[in-house]
Amino acid sequence: MHLSNPSRRIVLATAFGLLFVGGCAGGSWFGKKDLPPEPKPGPKATSDAVLGDTIGAYTLVGAGQSLRLRGFGIVIGLGENGGGDCPSTIREYLLDYLAREFAPQDTASMRPKYSPRELIDSLDTAVVVVHGQVPAGAPSGTHFDLQVEAVGTQTRSLEGGVLVLCELKRFDVSAAGKGLVSGRSLARARGLVYTNPFTKDVPSIRQSSLRRGFVLGGGKTLEDRSVRLLLHEPSYWTARKIEHRVNERFGQHPEVATAMSKGYITLVTPEKYADKPRHFQELVSHLCLDNTPGQVERKLQQLSRSLDAAPETLRHISLIWEGLGRTVIPHIQPLYTHANPYVCFYSARTGLRLKDINALAPMARIASSDGHACRLLAVREMGECGYPQAARPLETLLNTEDSAVRIAAYESLLNYRRPSVETVQFISVLDPTQYNLKLDIVESKAPPIVYIRRSIEPRIAVFGRLTPITLPLFYNHPDDWVTLNALELDDEITVLWRSRSGRTTPEPLKTQARVVELIKALCDAPFENDDGTPRGIGLNYSQIVEVLATLCETNAIPAQLVMQTAPLPELLGPMELPERPEADVTPLLIEDWDEAGERGEYDDEELEDTTNGDARNEIEENGR
């Protein structure tokens, strides 16, 4: 994406911020208590012949949306841009939490340098509200992005700060007073805070954007989040049969599926699908309920007669194949070279996912075919298949003219250790346990690209190790954090910068006029080399992105700037959060929220089966 004018910068600034704002979702964490009865399941998902005898024909996935979490914490390392003002309820909660969380574990432990009260009151810190969303079915340990915003009015900027470890609880749109901090801890949050780097030239949103930041991958779930399969026609026998079928396919220890009543079955994502819970839920829905050899053979014959169907139907067929397991490989291998490009792709995809090495060559052909409808999907499948042999054709794609294919090939190659992608990691000065930036240097003969990640981790990829910076050069950061200067005949760039406190102007730094070397100088720690020269200036991720975007916009860097995209419908909620003046804390930003939750629809915490306390025993008896 090229940045060429103020209007495009406004659009980019808005998009960068929006992609980190998760919509409040209807799913929740499962807990048993006396709550309302099960909701009545909706109409059957499909009457299609292809899907007619699958689990999806008997059930629908309930509470399948992301779960919104909220918490309150402290951001440190703000110089004098912070402020300790916050509502009394939040202050009392943080004093208690910090005292418990960071108290010495024994009498021999050193006394903390600052008390919780001093920490909150310092101008170097700010109290923030933290929001995040957890995907449906996410297992314990899942990382997710966070948004933070200053609570008090005194805080001027969160740029470059660090969110201290805090807890996240279920977001309640109607909570007020002590209800804002009550509830069970479902996730932990910590990490480096980044502000929107594309607002410096947009005064109308610049001030508020500095008070709002993002923590990439800073949330971590503490327990499994289950989802539910709701039966269209409640039946103990069907619920028990579905439980057996799912556990038979995905493992008995621990159990993946548990029939809780005649109306629903809970699903816990197994470890193999920890990073793709939605794929697991799709596979469950496409499992054939009757898995006897005769029925499997009849199903395969039926699917073979449906190969002239639309691409979406072929996708369903591939998931049914995958659910049946490796026994389908002899049946689909002849389809790897089918004349229909979709049949070729979906059969090869199934083969790769079922660990058939013979599917790799046809998938590589699809990935290298210009104009193939499934080309990008094929590149990603090659990255996930785990076969080292997939790396070589992926490296070839780094030299193609199609930037989307090149980026997909690079991301796939991150799963393999290959010299074509060299990763340099830079530690944060404020928190040495975390990375300020991961820089990927991608060997490529095609036109250069600077690719910016904006989810899960701070990462920049430069396609073209020797990509130069056009001289002469002059750049000054809007907040005077860094100045770059070089004459046309120079072979180095002079980097002038100021310290984090702003009270000192360190010695200038010299770096080669190449994109990779400039990024290293900007993000490396501001320590001295053996000869006394500075190693780097320690800019944070958002500041580095801002510098690169400006240099690409002015053609000082002769490269295409590409920002990572994300599907907005999955990240944004359908409505805005109404203000609640009666609350102890007025909402600090317009939040998206879950329309279903406001309508009173049930989620995992608010569902309880209609059977008595011995429901599980009754299922056992009726399911035999």
* Largest sheet strand order: 2-3-4-7-6-5
Question: Rough shape?
Answer: flat
- N-to-C CA distance: 60 Å
- Over all CA atoms, what is the radius of gyration? 27 Å
Beta-strand proportion? 15-25%
Largest sheet: 6 strands, antiparallel, barrel
Structural class of the helices, strands and pairings? alpha+beta
- Give me the count of strands: 21
| Percent of residues in helices | 25-40%
The total domain count is: 3
What report would you give on this structure?
There is one protein chain. The chain has 624 residues and is of the alpha+beta class. The protein folds into 3 domains: 6-49 and 63-225 and 574-606, no CATH class; 286-418, Leucine-rich Repeat Variant; 421-563, no CATH class. It is built from 19 helices and 21 strands. Strands 2-3-4-7-6-5 form a 6-stranded antiparallel β-barrel. A 5-stranded mixed β-sheet has the order 11-12-14-13-19, with helices on both faces. Strands 1-8-10-9 form a 4-stranded antiparallel β-sheet, covered by helices on one side. The radius of gyration is 27 Å and the shape is flat. Residues 9-16, 18-47 and 567-624 have low confidence and may be disordered.
